[in-house]
Amino acid sequence: MLQQAFNGLVGGAFYALLALGLSVIFGMLRVVNFAHGSFYMLGAFGAYVLLDSLGLNFWVALVTVPLLLGAAGMLVERVFVRRLTRLDPLYGFLFTFGLALILQDAVKHRYGVQSQPYPRPSALSGSLDLGLFDYPAYQVFVLAVSLLTCAATWLILTRTRVGTIVRAATERPELTRALGIDVGRWVAPVFGFGVALAGLAGVLAAPMRAVNPLMGADLIITVFAVVVIGGLGSIFGSVTAGFAIGLITALGDLYVPALSQTLVFVVMAAVLLWRPAGLFGREEAAL
Amino acid sequence: MGAPATPPPVLTARSLVKDFRGFRAVDGVDLDVADGAVHALVGPNGAGKTTLFHLLTGFHRPTAGRIHVGGRDLTGKSPEQVARHGVARSFQTTSLFPQMTPREHLELALQAGTTLGWRFWRSDRALRRFTGRALDLLDQVGLAAHADEPAGALAYGRKRALELALALALDPRVLLLDEPTAGMGTEDLTRTIELIQRIRAGRTVVMVEHNMSVVAALADRVTVLQAGQVLVEGPYAEVRRDPRVISAYLGDAHAAH
Ligand SMILES: Nc1ncnc2c1ncn2[C@@H]1O[C@H](COP(=O)(O)OP(=O)(O)OP(=O)(O)O)[C@@H](O)[C@H]1O
Ligand SMILES: [Mg+2]
Which of A29, A227, A265, B159 is buried most, with the most CB atoms less than 10 Å from its CB? Predict the structure, then answer.
């Protein structure tokens, strides 16, 4: 059971990274990025392509793929999303949803729907003695990277000047601008950062999950539930809810396997009945 | 302190127009605000006062017309550019960061004038160098004792005072206040009038105000807007006797019943 709980935390590590990116983007742009799952998928495919056609290993991919996807995200924000934010939120929804489908189908067209193999990095191929049980070293690594990334993001947002500006702009964009702060300048970097987090999750997923065009679409539904449970736009909420949902689904799998797919949504419904704005969301932030 | 000749205007608007999907909220407004004056903007609900403020501060792009501040053309500039040209504003509905303390508000506003550049990793401790000035400003508006409470928990009058301090933190040449006394009881009202009296020194203030006793106490000149147009403009004593103003306000009062 303890081992299953650990599995849950590792699953939660992916939810947390993805939910964190969605939350940061939603907070700053008020755009729900439906393409987030596709960027995750592109992260995994990025790692696969680097290895398959350029012979670049996992460690190179771990650094370069998130950076490349982050840059691509900034471009997408500059060229497309920026033009839509002044309009009805529906346009942002349609655009990111369309982008998700385009990215997914483009990859499907090129690589087909079957899963591509991706080996574990050799340094992490063994298992680690965690005292109570042995556990694959790679999974421990995933958990550690996710926790560190979430903690670093938290520090940037709460302890740096730009973090203060992003938080201010998230809360009261007009007031922030009235103070002479150029909010627009930070929008593309924030969007790119969120996308880079999805890419990082994708690279981390490549050695332990099936690399295929649909991997993002399958996961992202749960991540949306995670974000809603944590409170839309709440950074702390999405990370906590990410790990919690990972844990709950893994344990649910153990006791009531039939329910494991729906469990997330049961939890979501229960949380929303109790707190309509999510666990850590404020009523205001829920628009 | 009436100067013999009228000082040159520090803020001018020429033929400003703002259309919202065919509805003309501001309809050819000319405005000259004299340097150092307190200039009140009055008019019935929906007259276009707030929209005019949004135009003057770059939150709305004018459909037509031009805006100059201190001789510079600010038409079409972004809100942050307008703020950096010395035009600060407050909002009609209270607008603060509920989680942040008054001191943090002011530190944020004070650093806005400095260059952050792209060095985002700079610790927010760099903001602390503004603490002295922040506490000064809080003292000016009577909030020194509440510097470290979350702004969301402050009493309404104190929130309004904090908004004034925030605008002052930009050390603006022109201060635009949208209904700074709205919803205040007499005690807060008196305090706010005194405060505006003090902070007007060395600046120009344009204020939207529904309360005529506040206008009488503070304003050198008054512009009356109605249906997006300037109805009357002049010193308070003249404007209040103008029959067009009286009928506009009575008409408004009748409509309200
Ligand atoms: N973004 C907008 N889109 C469409 N119409 C708008 C918009 N903003 C304002 N209006 C309309 O423009 C008119 C003027 O509004 P404005 O808020 O400027 O009035 P006001 O003089 O400030 O009124 P009040 O005294 O109630 O604050 C109103 O009829 C309002 O409904
Ligand atoms: Mg108004």
Answer: A227
